[in-house]
Protein 1
Amino acid sequence: MNNAKRRTVIAGNWKMNFTPAEATAFINEIKPMVAGKDNCDIIFCAPYVTIAAAQAAAEGSNIKIGAENVHFAESGAYTGEVSAKMLTACGVEYVIIGHSERRQYFGETDETVNKRTLAALAAGMKVILCLGEVKEQRLAGITREIVSMQTKLDLAGVSAEDMKNIIIAYEPVWAIGTGLTATPEQAEETCGQIREVLVELYGKDVAEATTIQYGGSMNDKNAAELLSKPNVDGGLIGGASLVASKFTAIVDAAQ
Ligand code: PEP
């Protein structure tokens, strides 16, 4: 973390978990546990149908509620999709785009990730843009090339001005939901490489102001060490974001 230059963001990705009633109970449980811990932004990204309940429970607290995806069109024949206009109309400010599960199971590509990102930014949203290598790519020693390519493709057409609304989540795919965590050194190295790409694309000032999270089995036990690294500006957390005590411990590690 480098709090002098950029905001630390601890974000939960609930994935396909929590009914509205369960989300309400969870937010009511965790709200007092994270109250006053203002050294980082705290966000939970929720399934669409759960957002309203989570927002109502979070009202007046330091918890923000985001979405887990957004479509690139404003409206139209895209059954099952939700637009940025719809999300902002519901008061949703943050959205995850490009999560590896979307890429793996729902055919999302860097091209659609880029289109979704541009649409979300145009609607005034803040984007948590996920990218990262698969196991074979890490073993082949091409992680730098992969994250560099993804960063460039996913951010194509994003202006330097709009970068203030982009958070990058470096998520090695082999570490998501597997219990395998990148070592703090691996996380630092790759987050640093992504920042170098941002320097190339936008210059030093923008690169140094951009929050780059690590995601991949971050939990109450490993968060402090990961977050101690200068280029790791927070976490995107799946499994541990469903357990109030674990998520709170990660927020504490970010203080
Ligand atoms: C994620 O869903 O982005 C994630 C990092 O999941 P987990 O923490 O469960 O690995």
Protein 2
Amino acid sequence: MEQHLSQLGEFGLIAQIRERFGTPDGVTGIGDDCAILPQQSGRNTLVSTDMLIEGTHFLRRDISPYDLGWKSAAVNISDIAAMGGHPTATFLSLALPATTTTEWTEEFLRGYAELSERFGVPLLGGDTTASPDRICINVAVLGECPYGRARLRSGALKGDVICVTGSLGDSAGGLKAILAGVKRDPDVQRLIEKHYRPIPRVPEGEELRLNLGVNAMMDISDGLGSDLQHILDASGMHAEIDVTALPLSLALKRVCTSQGWDPVELAVSGGEDYELLFTCTPQTEVLLSVPHFVIGKITDRARGDAKINWRGAQRPIGPGFDHFKKK
Ligand code: ADP
Ligand code: MG
């Protein structure tokens, strides 16, 4: 039967691709933040790639080329941080309309370079082509970590506590403010900056990797609701989240109060925070030196059909972002 992607959804399509291609022994392929390849040296190479499309991921009239360059590098490097890896190189592919100015490309590269230099990641190649209309950016990122030590989405264990490395919802609040044309006071400005200039949690990811009790990890790109679901699916677990424990920044709370928005909805369903979401044993959690917030725990059973029990929620909680499904 013919089915459109709007019904199948982004993750249905990825499942279709995954079924079509096998994964060689000893390799982790589709399904985590990065692929993991064993090296002769006894270390693991991590690889990930992510695309940003004008009109879908950004609006050219709103984002500066500097911020777009920064964000393109940041969101990719974040997938290496998500596994606890060390980023080693990026490759940048650009499809640009011929009308793009050299001033634009210079600013784009300045932002890309600034974020990359911050984490010492060189740009080693890519591809360049003309686009008829929209800007399309693809980045591939390489990283590494000791053999078998990358943290997967599938490692969560019953009794683990669920943690995040920073506040949630700021980026989604910033996007909402941009789209609604909200006046840019310092709070709104802060949220917009989080949206345009996310900082991948690279040292935090590497530090967390050193703690053996950290069992599962990923970065939050689609939103807590959707991304936690990936950990639960991969680990065969359920979860209880204490909605009142979700870390919300003061800026987000103030902007939400003045605009009549729900900060919890932004924290749960809004994406692009690029904080790390991880699970660890309670004994490990109390010893962690990386700043973090405990937001819930892993269980082997949930009430009802849903895998996540949102405790203390004032209203029903919806799913995160899917590129093909309409909300
Ligand atoms: P992330 O949000 O961490 O970038 P995604 O949700 O985009 O991860 O992707 C989930 C998994 O599916 C990843 O392992 C990714 O490599 C894989 N994937 C996504 N799109 C494709 C594709 N077109 N072909 C092969 N694998 C894909
Ligand atoms: Mg990711």
Protein 3
Amino acid sequence: MADSVQHWRVSYNDIHNLIRKSTPTIAAQFNPDLLIAIGGGGFFPARVMRTFLREQTTKKALQIQAIGLSLYEPVEGTSEETLGSEVIRTQWLGPESGKLLLGKRNLIVDEVDDTRKTLHYALSELKKDVEAELLSYPEAERDALRSATQFAVFVVHNKLKPKLAELPSGILYFAGEEVGDLWLDYPWEATDIEAHDLLASQDRK
Ligand code: 5GP
């Protein structure tokens, strides 16, 4: 079957440089205490972002926590993927999730915001964990703790297209680069990295 979707290859260096350029704004406007990588595409970006945040803030190396979410099902025989109807949790923060997030500025990191369903799910569920944790505090303390607990999002690429879900209100949103509705081929998906990088440099031209 012919692959009808337009592909855009990105190299490790492209991603590294987009994160380098984005970090000063994130450090100034949000200054995260904790990074939450959405696996698998958010792992490499979160690790690189930690390097630049360390350089630009007075903080020690930030902790990176991981959650695993899956939306796309591979289509047999093609490199394209089709939209699944559900976000599936494959990994979460554990029973202490709310405790971990409470009182912190939590930055969710993923490689790409396509339909926004994954980010919507991640944020809604993490906020639920915070609300559950708040129940163990006296009512008088809850509002202050709730407002001290903040969430923001960083994605390397945001696709400019109609989104199928919205982020909860009050969420700061940072994107390394805005792109059209293309299929992005990431370097960690490539088996031949030299061939991938060659195509990525052609795509850039
Ligand atoms: P969303 O929930 O925003 O539709 O999709 C988010 C997830 O879908 C991403 O974390 C990623 O795993 C996958 N995805 C969406 N668009 C692309 C793309 O262009 N390239 C790749 N490699 N994965 C994508």
